[in-house]
Design brief:
GO molecular function: 2 iron, 2 sulfur cluster binding; iron ion binding; oxidoreductase activity
Pfam families: Rieske, Ring_hydroxyl_A
Protein name: (Fe-S)-binding protein
Keywords: 2Fe-2S, Iron, Iron-sulfur, Metal-binding, Oxidoreductase
Organism: Metarhizobium album
CATH superfamily of the largest domain: Naphthalene 1,2-dioxygenase Alpha Subunit, Chain A, domain 1
Largest sheet: 7 strands, antiparallel
Structural class: alpha+beta
């Protein structure tokens, strides 16, 4: 809610020191949580799902954001729709949580019936003078960017999503995510604030000590290091790695695969970063042995050596590889609970047990998400402790956390908090 007076939240925002983590109240307080929902999950673009969540006409799925419930569906003309899950009669929910298949949207309360476009087609006992035309379901602004569905609940969606759209449409085209298949999906509820979930994902300072499965395919040098702490041998290895990165990126770009880092992290409304990363070891995919999990590659991909195109925003992170993709969506549930919904995507025609092994496909990120969930719970317990004092971010490994905290403060202030 827009504030017209100096609020306790504004005092917390003012207390944040540059280069340090946020004051405890910004992670723990209920009024801050409600403000976060208002600013970051109603007024900003958020990732809510995928086109391939609803592959056929009549497929629908419900996504709940705070008290707001959305229906993501595919209509009879195979067009994607996003609508509020609220009947225009007396407000009943139309669909229950989860996935379903519908021919029409029928309210279970009084059987008001809507076409899959949202138009009201049947409203019994409303009399001759009743005008159905003005009782269609409320539509939600959305964009499909490379098959990822971004929605905004505001009547004035931020316009700078155009940069994300321009950058990622080209980068995601070869993967054809819109026509991929969800091979597996899991929900993990982390016992921590959503900002701690995002902060944890935006650094790999903790990776070598906590993510043995992920580190098979991740190159730790990519996520920052203190050059003064390196031995001459390690410094030579780092220089060799970055020379390889420069050469590999140039070659990928020359081959028609955009790869350089693009980021819109501060002094902006829509927050994102993308880059094509080298995969370590066998170099093919984020699997237990870094080889491809699926023999049928995504979309029009013909190569396994194109690394990991990562993309993250303020409520999602994604990894797109030749053989599969991993999409994670973050939804706040309360000040101290956060839903992390992860989906593993393969080619639409890939057959489990023939083209891919499900355990190999999902092993790394199931393990990593469980490990991160424990770390987030530890972090939240710590910031609740009266002894907590905001600590300094590493200038080598946590610069993106500093940018996120700066962006968070700026966006809260922009909306009057």
């Amino acid at each position: 809610m827009l504030q017209t007076f100096a609020s306790p939240i504004s005092a917390l925002l003012d207390a944040r020191a540059e280069g340090h983590s946020l004051p405890a109240g910004l992670y723990t307080r209920e009024d801050v949580f409600e403000a976060d929902l208002d600013v970051f999950f109603r007024r900003h673009w958020i990732c809510i799902g995928l086109e391939c969540d609803v592959p056929e006409a009549g497929d629908a799925t419900v996504v709940d954001i705070g008290k707001t419930s959305l229906i993501l569906l595919r209509d009879d003309d195979n067009e994607i729709r996003v609508m509020h899950n609220v009947c225009r009669h007396r407000g009943s929910r139309l669909l229950d949580a989860g996935k379903t298949i519908v021919s029409k949207l029928v309210c279970p309360y009084h059987t008001w019936t809507y076409e899959l476009t949202g138009e009201l087609s049947y409203a019994p006992h409303m009399g001759k003078g009743f005008d159905k035309e003005c009782r269609s379901l409320k539509q939600v602004a959305f964009k499909s960017i490379g098959g990822l569905i971004y929605a905004c609940l505001s009547e004035n969606p931020p316009e700078d999503i155009s940069h994300l759209e321009e950058v990622m449409t080209a980068r995601l085209a070869p993967y054809d995510i819109a026509n991929a298949k969800v091979a597996y999906e899991t929900d993990v509820i982390e016992k921590g604030n959503w900002k701690l979930t995002i902060e944890n994902n935006r650094e790999c300072y903790h990776c070598s000590a906590n993510h043995p499965e992920l580190c098979v395919s991740f190159v730790d040098l990519d996520f920052g290091f203190d050059p003064d702490a390196l031995s001459p041998e390690d410094r030579a290895q780092a220089e060799e790695h970055f020379a390889l990165y420069e050469a590999r990126t140039k070659q990928w770009e020359a081959d028609g695969f955009p790869s350089t880092a693009v980021e819109q992290l501060v002094d902006c409304t829509t927050n994102f970063r993308t880059q094509r990363l080298i995969i370590s070891g066998a170099g093919e995919s984020q699997t237990p042995d870094a080889t491809a999990a699926s023999s049928k590659l995504l979309g029009t991909m013909t190569r396994k050596d194109l690394g990991d195109t990562h993309l993250w925003g303020h409520n999602s992170w994604n990894h797109f590889m030749g053989d599969h993709a991993v999409v994670s969506i973050v939804i706040p549930l309360s000040a101290d609970r956060t839903l992390v919904r992860t989906k593993w995507l393969v080619h639409k025609d890939a057959v489990e047990g023939v083209d891919y092994d499900l355990e190999k496909l999902t092993n790394v990120w199931i393990a990593t998400t469980d490990q991160d969930s424990e770390l987030v719970a530890r972090s939240h317990a710590g910031v609740e402790d009266p002894a907590y004092v905001p600590g300094p971010y590493s200038p080598f490994s946590e610069t993106n956390l500093d940018k996120f905290a700066t962006w968070y403060i700026d966006r809260m202030r922009a909306h009057g908090y």
